[in-house]
Amino acid sequence: MTRGRTHGVAVTRHVEALLTVETPGEGFTDLTREVAAFLAEAGADTGMAHLFCRHTSAALVIQENADPDVRTDLLTALRGLAPEGSGWVHDLEGPDDMPAHVRTMLTDSALAIPVRAGRLRLGTWQAIYLVEHRTRPHQREVVLCYCGSGAR
Fold first, then answer.
1. Rounded to a whole number, what is the distance in angstroms from the first to the last CA of the chain?
2. Where are the alpha helices (DSSP H) in 52-152?
3. Which residues pair with 62 in a beta bridge?
4. Which of 3, 83, 87, 127 has the maximal Cβ count within 10 Å?
């Protein structure tokens, strides 16, 4: 294991905002720019960005942003793991309802991403996505929080 320099940060600010996302239906919506804009507006320096999706049939993921085929293949995999028409008992909102809940359980509803010098510490090919697991468009809410020091 290679270790870098450690940095202690006194939490001097906590900023929260609500991001509303219009999804086109099943698929990935890139939120990276919106989260970066939130950090700039929050005056972030060094700390943590926390994101929380307020829904049980949509999720947050960090995934590759270079080749859109990766996202296509991920949707194919999720459909295979929790397909429609598999005898689900819960179908109050349609045949995609229960598969969407299972797919959310397999992905995640929250992310924590380090921030340094006001920038997300994502890898070269990483982006933040909201994954809509339902087939029709929805309006989704993501709570954005920044905890850390303010800009110098």
1. 31
2. 68-81, 97-106
3. 128
4. 127
Whole-model pTM: value is: 0.91
pLDDT single digits (tens) 100-136: 999 999 999 999 999 999 999 999 999 999 999 999 9
Show the 3-state SS of 6-50: CCCCCCCEEEEEEEEEECCCCEEEECHHHHHHHHHHHCEEEEEEE
Please give the structure tokens belonging to residue 58: 């949509």
Rounded Cα–Cα distance for residues 90 and 97 (Å) = 7
Q: Is 68 helix (H, G, I), strand (E, B) or coil?
A: helix
- List of domains in the chain: 14-150 (2.60.120.460)
d(CA 87, CA 97): 12
| Angle at alpha carbon of residue 98, lines to 96 and 102, rounded to 5° | 110
The answer to whether 107 touches 59, Cβ cutoff 8 Å, is yes
